[in-house]
Write a structure and sequence with these properties.
Helix content of chain B: under 10%
Largest sheet of chain B: 7 strands, mixed
Largest sheet of chain A: 6 strands, mixed
Number of helices of chain B: 0
CATH class of chain A: Mainly Beta
CATH class of chain B: Mainly Beta
Distance between the termini of chain B: 37 Å
CATH architecture of chain A: Sandwich
Order of helices and strands of chain B: EEEEEEEEEEE
Number of strands of chain A: 10
Number of domains of chain B: 1
Radius of gyration of chain A: 14 Å
Number of domains of chain A: 1
CATH topology of chain B: Immunoglobulin-like
Structural class of chain A: mainly beta
CATH superfamily of chain A: Immunoglobulins
Strand content of chain A: over 45%
Oligomer: heterodimer
Order of helices and strands of chain A: EEEEEEEEEE
CATH superfamily of chain B: Immunoglobulins
Largest interface: A-B, 25 and 26 residues
């Protein structure tokens, strides 16, 4: 029979609040990480990246935190807006060649309540 | 801006048909990728290519093949479509000159009846 997919983790926040989306990555040798945003009906779009020699990086309204000790990545969105509603994926990679390919997390669905 | 385009947004095919999904990028990227995306399973890599006429299997290549005759174009082929290949197919490209960010197309939602 047809398999049933797993439900995505969902985060629901009020407009204007801060959002924190978490990701546990799999490989301690990974040295580069990306967050992607995927709106309904569209392909994933780059948000922000971070290298393993950093533990924090800030962009416009977004901050990525990296904790290599526990292999954890988080994306913080300040003053969340309705346009932030999307599925967010983290991705990791170990470097060049085929190891430069990205390994994607399952994603978290962010819903912003007006 | 990098632009990755896919030939169709929606496609409906019948079991056993041969299906071609086309992807074109306009930034002279060396690397191109095909993924499928299913609810709760994330993005799974089907095939990738580092150069013209070069291809490598990803994590789930069974039932698929690819073609890269020109640098800007990467085609995914379903030799004999089956219902379990109903999915969203995403193409991506990446520069070979440092950086690991992949740029994605809008996706093709394929339904196999």
């Amino acid at each position: 029979g047809e398999s049933v997919g797993l439900h995505l983790p969902t985060l629901s926040v009020q407009e204007g609040d801060n959002s924190i989306i978490n990701c546990a990555y799999s490989n301690s040798a990974s040295d580069y990480f990306i967050w992607y945003k995927q709106e309904s009906g569209k392909g994933p779009q780059f948000i922000i990246d971070i290298r393993s020699n950093m533990d924090k990086r800030q962009g416009q309204r977004v901050t990525v935190l990296l904790n290599k000790t526990v292999k954890h990545l988080s994306l913080q969105i300040a003053a969340t807006q309705p346009g932030d509603s999307a599925v967010y994926f983290c991705a990791e990679t170990m470097g060049g060649g085929s190891q430069g390919n990205l390994i994607f997390g399952k994603g978290t669905k962010l819903s912003v309540k007006p | 801006d990098v632009k990755v385009t896919q030939s169709s947004r929606y496609l409906v095919k019948r079991t056993g048909e041969k299906v071609f999904l086309e992807c074109v990028q306009d930034m002279d990227h060396e690397n191109m990728f095909w993924y499928r995306q299913d609810p709760g399973l994330g993005l799974r890599l089907i095939y990738f290519s580092y150069d013209v006429k070069m291809k490598e299997k990803g994590d789930i290549p069974e039932g698929y093949s690819v073609s890269r005759e020109k640098k800007e174009r990467f085609s995914l082929i379903l030799e004999s479509a089956s219902t379990n290949q109903t999915s969203m197919y995403l193409c991506a490209s990446r520069s070979g000159a440092g950086g690991f960010e992949q740029f994605f197309g809008p996706g093709t939602r394929l339904t196999v009846l």
